Amino acid sequence: MAASRWFGSRFTRLLLLTAAQALFLLAIAASYMAVGAWGQEIRLKTEPIDPRDAMYGDYVILNYEISRLKMPLWKEGTAKPEDGQTVYVVVKPEGDIYEPVAVYGSKPAVSADQVALKGRVDYSGYDQFSVKYGLERYYVPEGTGGELEKKAGNTVVRVKVASWGQSRISEIE
């Protein structure tokens, strides 16, 4: 009798722990898929560099124009953003490319033509700061990275941005 109670109790805890881990992984996948399904598409200008990873193949490092921001765009009370701080870069369309208009330390309310892109401050200097968005590396089919490298300076990236700030690359033009 005591053995069956021990087995049932430990087995139940193990089952619950396994289910919790599976649900956590499903939530991460669902969040990523939700960005693609319901995210607003924006276009960002970038300059690619074509490295190669022995484990994963060809990928393109993307250096976005909106990664280097001038300090007047910082709209918080502090003098400047801190290195490693989470920020929201508000962008709006200028023609068919989205350009930064403001940067906040917390998610701001935006108008219908604006999008808040979540990022992290990589470096904060005297008059400018740089932001990483998690969109700086994009894996491409083997052998196609060179084509993108030739288009350096004329490359536009289509990015889907969810209302909560999460983003992902949908296409490189």
UniProtKB/TrEMBL annotation:
It comes from the Bacteria. InterPro entries: GDYXXLXY (IPR025833). Pfam families: GDYXXLXY (PF14345). This is GDYXXLXY domain-containing protein. It comes from Paenibacillus thalictri.
